[in-house]
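for the writeup, i need someone to sanity check this before i put it in the appendix. the sequnce is what the collaborator sent (i think, or maybe the updated version? ugh). structure was predicted straight from it, no edits. if anything looks off just tell me and ill rerun, i have time this weekend
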Amino acid sequence: MLRAYELMIIIDSDVDSPESVIAQVVALVTDEGATIVSTDNWGRRKFAYKINHKTEGTYVVWEIVTETAGLPDTERRLRLADEIVRHKLFRLPEAEAERRGLFEGAVPAAAG
């Protein structure tokens, strides 16, 4: 059974190359056997309040389809990553995933 998720990360503003952090997160997700359907890079934005003495960061959102329940290894590594200020992974309701067309042609990659 396919499940759809949305993953948002905020990359620390002190990181010189946010693209390398984005590539690392993509590798983490695909290594767990998930398929990335879309990537939306919102760019650098100001926070509503200070987070770890920072006032801005780079926001990136992915739509992900996978057969596994969540992405436990990815979430663990995101919690430990110093470059990631915040992250949020949540499962999309099936009706919303179908409305967005996330299940059309989505075949999970082989894990490992």
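The chain has one domain: 3-98. The two ends are 20 Å apart (CA to CA).
thx in advance!!
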